[in-house]
Amino acid sequence: MGANGDLATLAAREMAALVRHRQASPVEIVEDVLVRIAVLDPRLNAFAALDAEGALAAARAAEAAVMSGAPLGPLHGVPVTIKDVQAVAGLPTRRGSRLTDATVAAEDAPAVARLRAAGAVILGKTTTTEQGWTAVSTSPLTGSTDNPWKPGYTAGGSSSGAAALAAAGCGPLHLGTDGAGSVRLPAHFCGVVGFKPTYGMVPYVPVPNNGALSHIGPIARDPADVELMLEVMTGPHPADHTTLPGGFRAAEAPADLSGLRVAFSPDLGHARVDPDVAEVVARAARLLAGLGAHVEQVEPPWGTMGPDLIRALWPAPLFPYAPADEAAETATDPGLMACLRETGAVSWPVLHAAQTRRNAYASAIGRWFAEGWDLLLTPSASVAAFPHGRQVPDHWPAHGWDWLSWAEFSYPFNLAHCPAVSVPCGLTASGLPVGLQIAGPRLSDARVMSAARAFLAASPAPVWRSRLPS
Question: Is 293 helix (H, G, I), strand (E, B) or coil?
Fold first, then answer.
């Protein structure tokens, strides 16, 4: 296979097997991916920094290792992209902001280093919203990243470029980060798989000062690839005191989900959800029930506690990014400015009280799972993709910054440190992807991903799974 896109759209496991058996070279694979990127990215605008030269050099080194008989890692020769909030040696880390330093990083972030050690080839840095503050795919630095399913529509965020490239078949593996849904929300909008693991599974360096909200997670088309990428990245690291011992290991996919107690909450007792999204997610819940799980519709008692809590906590970590003068303010995302202006007078006692409520909220979620439920199903978001230029769709009440109004399902599991995955479960009547979120208690990562694999294996294969957006 040559540079015709055939290799570019393979799953990571398939690529690695071809390399291992000398049926395709890392150079061929990377060249094919770069050709596909050259065709599609001018429309998508998904790269903050594409390092084609560096990727080809790494691919040639990977090919030499294969030919010499050297030991090969599980991702040997497999292309990977990195969201532009994690350091990649030789590239700047701009975080979607004009106000950041363009100096190149001296070394890789730990997760990136582990991917390289497993043989992965780094293609470059993908777009993100400014400082990851919002979940729509626009930043002052890189402009708008398009949804592959519909030009001019958001790809979600803040891991915008990662999800867009995954959906477009521009390589199999994409690293994202998630502080309130930033892996799962773009996966929902773009029709791919996005997994936020248990907090501490993957080292995040430097450790963010944002109330222990941010997680690193994989985005891919294939859930087995998500698991493979996660296996490579997990485990303790001396520079991240929050990392957990051990690591992630994928469970064998069960034939069914018999015996699992699965709650389904279409709105968490409070969230507005567009009818076309609700209908697709309800069908997905019924399919999961058909796999042997006991699925029951519920309203979790902690659900209504979330909206006020996240709005009290979310803006505080953004205060350090407040512009220092009028020129810097002009260079800053207007939505971020609106958020800072509205919330900038919050006091330390108010924040401290909110953190106390957050601890109680996380405890309530943990107890709720322990007392009766193995998994929870919800929509991944309340809306399908909508046009650029707004924080909310046109048919929702306008607001200068509050994108959280349609993302009420994702942040609970950042606050409670629980694993959660968005898997594609269908299309709206207008042909836009919808995600089903599967969440579980802390450290149930393998169970959550096993359910995701079982669901996708049992799902029919209409257009949303059988073709790549173009």
Answer: coil
Cβ atoms of 235 and 246 closer than 8 Å:
yes
CB 168 within 8 A of CB 469: yes
CA contacts within 13 A on the Cβ side of 55? 28
Amino acid symbol at 181: G
Structural domain includes residue 5: no
Is there a contact between 179 and 132 (Cβ–Cβ < 8 Å)?
Answer: yes
Specify burial of residue 250 (Cβ count, 10 A radius: 0-12, 13-18, 19+). Answer: middle
Does any domain span residue 91? yes
- Asked if the model's pLDDT at residue 426 lies above 90, the reply is yes
Active site residues: 83, 158, 182
Is residue 292 exposed (0-12), middle (13-18) or buried (19+ Cβ within 10 Å)? middle
> Number of structural domains, the chain?
1
Sequence length of the chain is 470
pLDDT at site 461: 62
The pLDDT, as a whole number, for residue 222 is 95
pTM over 0.85: yes
Q: Is 4 within the bounds of a domain?
A: no
Q: What are the beta bridge partners of residue 435?
A: 424
Tell me: the pLDDT tens digits for 76-88? 999 999 999 999 9
Q: What is the CATH number of the domain that holds 452?
A: 3.90.1300.10
Chain Cα centroid distance, residue 42: 22
Residue 162 exposed, middle or buried by CB count within 10 Å (0-12, 13-18, 19+): buried
The answer for residues whose C-beta is within 8 angstroms of residue 101's C-beta and 6 or more apart is 92
3 pLDDT higher than 60: no
Q: What are 97's two structure tokens?
A: 């902001």
| Contact criterion met (CB below 8 Å) for 208 and 182 | no
| Domain range enclosing 195 | 12-466
The 420-427 sheet, strands edge to edge: 47-50, 121-126, 79-83, 173-178, 215-220, 193-196, 420-427, 433-439, 375-379, 261-264, 294-297
Rounded-to-integer distance, Cα 123 and Cα 126, Å: 9
CA torsion angle 389 391 393 396 (round to 10): -140
The DSSP line for 338-393 is HHHHHHTT--HHHHHHHHHHHHHHHHHHHHHHHTT-SEEEEES-SS---BTT-SS-
Residue 130, pLDDT score = 98
Q: Mean pLDDT over residues 27-46, rounded?
A: 98
